[in-house]
Automatic annotation (TrEMBL):
It comes from Desulfomarina profundi. Pfam families: Methyltrn_RNA_4. InterPro entries: RNA_MeTrfase_C_dom. Residues 8-187 form the tRNA (guanine-N(1)-)-methyltransferase C-terminal domain. This is tRNA (guanine-N(1)-)-methyltransferase C-terminal domain-containing protein. It comes from the Bacteria.
Amino acid sequence: MYRGETSLHIALIHHPVLNKKGDIIGSAVTNLDLHDIARVARTYGVSRYYIVTPYSDQQNLVREMLDHWLTGHGGQYNPARKEALNIVRVADNLEHVQENIEKRFSRKPFLVCTSARKQNCSVSYSEVKKEINSNHPVLLLFGTAHGLAPELLQRAVHVLPPITGASDYNHLSVRSAASIVIDRLLGN
Protein backbone atom coordinates (compact mmCIF):
# COMPACT_ATOMS: atom_id res chain seq x y z
CA MET A 1 0.00 0.00 0.00
CA TYR A 2 1.08 3.56 -0.58
CA ARG A 3 0.17 6.70 1.37
CA GLY A 4 -3.30 7.86 0.35
CA GLU A 5 -4.27 4.56 -1.29
CA THR A 6 -8.03 3.89 -1.34
CA SER A 7 -10.06 0.72 -1.88
CA LEU A 8 -11.01 1.80 -5.43
CA HIS A 9 -9.69 -0.33 -8.30
CA ILE A 10 -10.28 0.44 -11.95
CA ALA A 11 -10.21 -1.79 -15.01
CA LEU A 12 -9.94 -0.64 -18.60
CA ILE A 13 -11.74 -3.33 -20.59
CA HIS A 14 -10.57 -4.07 -24.14
CA HIS A 15 -12.76 -7.16 -24.60
CA PRO A 16 -15.71 -7.61 -24.70
CA VAL A 17 -16.52 -4.10 -25.93
CA LEU A 18 -18.70 -2.72 -28.72
CA ASN A 19 -17.79 -1.18 -32.04
CA LYS A 20 -19.85 1.65 -33.52
CA LYS A 21 -22.21 -0.86 -35.16
CA GLY A 22 -22.88 -2.55 -31.80
CA ASP A 23 -20.87 -5.70 -32.58
CA ILE A 24 -18.76 -7.26 -29.83
CA ILE A 25 -15.06 -6.76 -30.53
CA GLY A 26 -11.66 -6.58 -28.90
CA SER A 27 -9.98 -3.17 -29.06
CA ALA A 28 -6.30 -2.27 -29.12
CA VAL A 29 -4.39 -1.04 -26.09
CA THR A 30 -3.09 2.52 -26.47
CA ASN A 31 -0.07 4.15 -24.90
CA LEU A 32 -2.12 7.26 -24.04
CA ASP A 33 -4.74 5.28 -22.12
CA LEU A 34 -2.03 3.44 -20.21
CA HIS A 35 -0.14 6.58 -19.16
CA ASP A 36 -2.89 9.15 -18.71
CA ILE A 37 -5.27 6.98 -16.72
CA ALA A 38 -2.41 5.69 -14.54
CA ARG A 39 -1.42 9.25 -13.73
CA VAL A 40 -4.92 10.34 -12.70
CA ALA A 41 -5.47 7.05 -10.83
CA ARG A 42 -2.27 7.43 -8.81
CA THR A 43 -2.99 11.11 -8.12
CA TYR A 44 -6.36 10.26 -6.56
CA GLY A 45 -5.28 7.12 -4.67
CA VAL A 46 -6.67 4.32 -6.86
CA SER A 47 -5.30 1.03 -5.54
CA ARG A 48 -4.79 -0.79 -8.87
CA TYR A 49 -5.38 0.00 -12.53
CA TYR A 50 -5.97 -3.14 -14.58
CA ILE A 51 -5.58 -3.34 -18.35
CA VAL A 52 -7.89 -6.19 -19.38
CA THR A 53 -7.31 -7.89 -22.72
CA PRO A 54 -7.33 -11.57 -23.69
CA TYR A 55 -4.90 -10.98 -26.55
CA SER A 56 -1.33 -12.05 -25.77
CA ASP A 57 0.21 -9.59 -28.26
CA GLN A 58 -1.59 -6.71 -26.51
CA GLN A 59 -0.58 -8.02 -23.07
CA ASN A 60 3.04 -8.23 -24.24
CA LEU A 61 2.85 -4.67 -25.56
CA VAL A 62 1.64 -3.41 -22.17
CA ARG A 63 4.33 -5.38 -20.34
CA GLU A 64 7.00 -4.00 -22.66
CA MET A 65 5.84 -0.42 -22.03
CA LEU A 66 5.67 -1.04 -18.28
CA ASP A 67 9.12 -2.61 -18.30
CA HIS A 68 10.57 0.50 -19.94
CA TRP A 69 9.02 2.78 -17.31
CA LEU A 70 9.36 0.57 -14.22
CA THR A 71 12.76 -1.09 -14.66
CA GLY A 72 14.32 0.60 -17.69
CA HIS A 73 15.58 4.02 -18.65
CA GLY A 74 12.10 5.60 -18.56
CA GLY A 75 11.79 5.15 -14.80
CA GLN A 76 15.21 6.67 -14.18
CA TYR A 77 14.44 9.58 -16.47
CA ASN A 78 10.93 10.21 -15.09
CA PRO A 79 10.42 8.82 -11.55
CA ALA A 80 6.93 10.36 -11.29
CA ARG A 81 5.78 8.39 -14.33
CA LYS A 82 7.31 5.26 -12.81
CA GLU A 83 5.34 5.84 -9.62
CA ALA A 84 2.08 6.21 -11.55
CA LEU A 85 2.64 3.15 -13.72
CA ASN A 86 3.56 1.05 -10.68
CA ILE A 87 -0.17 0.54 -9.96
CA VAL A 88 -0.87 -0.92 -13.43
CA ARG A 89 -1.53 -4.64 -13.82
CA VAL A 90 -2.39 -6.74 -16.88
CA ALA A 91 -5.21 -9.30 -16.81
CA ASP A 92 -6.73 -11.51 -19.49
CA ASN A 93 -10.30 -11.20 -18.20
CA LEU A 94 -12.53 -9.64 -15.59
CA GLU A 95 -12.66 -12.82 -13.49
CA HIS A 96 -8.89 -12.68 -12.91
CA VAL A 97 -9.17 -9.05 -11.81
CA GLN A 98 -11.95 -9.89 -9.35
CA GLU A 99 -9.98 -12.87 -7.98
CA ASN A 100 -6.90 -10.70 -7.49
CA ILE A 101 -8.86 -8.08 -5.57
CA GLU A 102 -10.64 -10.70 -3.47
CA LYS A 103 -7.29 -12.26 -2.60
CA ARG A 104 -5.89 -8.88 -1.48
CA PHE A 105 -8.95 -7.77 0.51
CA SER A 106 -10.53 -11.11 1.54
CA ARG A 107 -13.82 -9.80 0.13
CA LYS A 108 -15.46 -9.71 -3.28
CA PRO A 109 -15.28 -6.27 -4.85
CA PHE A 110 -18.37 -4.11 -5.30
CA LEU A 111 -18.62 -4.14 -9.13
CA VAL A 112 -19.60 -0.87 -10.82
CA CYS A 113 -19.73 -0.15 -14.56
CA THR A 114 -19.61 3.10 -16.47
CA SER A 115 -21.53 3.87 -19.64
CA ALA A 116 -22.18 6.87 -21.86
CA ARG A 117 -25.74 5.57 -22.19
CA LYS A 118 -28.29 5.62 -19.36
CA GLN A 119 -28.79 2.17 -17.84
CA ASN A 120 -31.58 0.78 -15.64
CA CYS A 121 -29.46 -0.22 -12.66
CA SER A 122 -27.92 3.16 -11.91
CA VAL A 123 -26.13 3.90 -8.67
CA SER A 124 -25.26 7.38 -7.47
CA TYR A 125 -21.72 8.63 -7.06
CA SER A 126 -22.40 9.20 -3.36
CA GLU A 127 -23.40 5.54 -2.87
CA VAL A 128 -20.17 4.32 -4.49
CA LYS A 129 -18.21 6.88 -2.45
CA LYS A 130 -19.71 5.36 0.74
CA GLU A 131 -18.45 1.92 -0.28
CA ILE A 132 -14.96 3.31 -0.93
CA ASN A 133 -14.94 5.24 2.36
CA SER A 134 -15.95 2.09 4.25
CA ASN A 135 -12.84 0.37 2.77
CA HIS A 136 -14.96 -2.13 0.87
CA PRO A 137 -13.07 -2.96 -2.34
CA VAL A 138 -14.74 -1.33 -5.34
CA LEU A 139 -13.98 -2.33 -8.92
CA LEU A 140 -14.94 0.28 -11.50
CA LEU A 141 -15.06 -0.78 -15.16
CA PHE A 142 -14.38 1.50 -18.11
CA GLY A 143 -14.95 0.32 -21.66
CA THR A 144 -12.84 1.14 -24.68
CA ALA A 145 -14.08 1.50 -28.29
CA HIS A 146 -17.83 2.26 -28.04
CA GLY A 147 -18.31 0.96 -24.53
CA LEU A 148 -18.72 -2.18 -22.48
CA ALA A 149 -20.54 -5.15 -24.00
CA PRO A 150 -24.05 -5.80 -22.61
CA GLU A 151 -22.84 -9.00 -20.90
CA LEU A 152 -20.57 -6.93 -18.64
CA LEU A 153 -23.24 -4.34 -17.91
CA GLN A 154 -25.61 -7.18 -16.93
CA ARG A 155 -23.02 -8.72 -14.59
CA ALA A 156 -22.56 -5.51 -12.66
CA VAL A 157 -25.01 -4.81 -9.91
CA HIS A 158 -24.57 -1.08 -10.47
CA VAL A 159 -23.88 1.34 -13.31
CA LEU A 160 -22.91 4.96 -12.69
CA PRO A 161 -25.01 7.56 -14.50
CA PRO A 162 -23.52 8.87 -17.75
CA ILE A 163 -21.43 12.03 -17.67
CA THR A 164 -23.44 14.92 -19.06
CA GLY A 165 -22.45 18.44 -19.96
CA ALA A 166 -24.26 21.57 -21.08
CA SER A 167 -24.77 20.24 -24.63
CA ASP A 168 -26.22 17.03 -26.00
CA TYR A 169 -22.80 15.93 -27.33
CA ASN A 170 -21.71 12.79 -25.49
CA HIS A 171 -18.56 11.18 -26.86
CA LEU A 172 -15.72 11.59 -24.36
CA SER A 173 -12.46 9.70 -24.67
CA VAL A 174 -12.10 7.00 -22.03
CA ARG A 175 -9.18 9.00 -20.58
CA SER A 176 -11.42 12.04 -20.07
CA ALA A 177 -14.28 9.97 -18.69
CA ALA A 178 -11.97 8.17 -16.25
CA SER A 179 -10.59 11.49 -15.02
CA ILE A 180 -14.06 12.92 -14.41
CA VAL A 181 -15.44 9.79 -12.72
CA ILE A 182 -12.38 9.32 -10.49
CA ASP A 183 -12.54 12.98 -9.46
CA ARG A 184 -16.24 12.64 -8.59
CA LEU A 185 -15.54 9.55 -6.47
CA LEU A 186 -12.26 10.53 -4.79
CA GLY A 187 -11.87 14.30 -5.21
CA ASN A 188 -12.13 16.75 -2.34
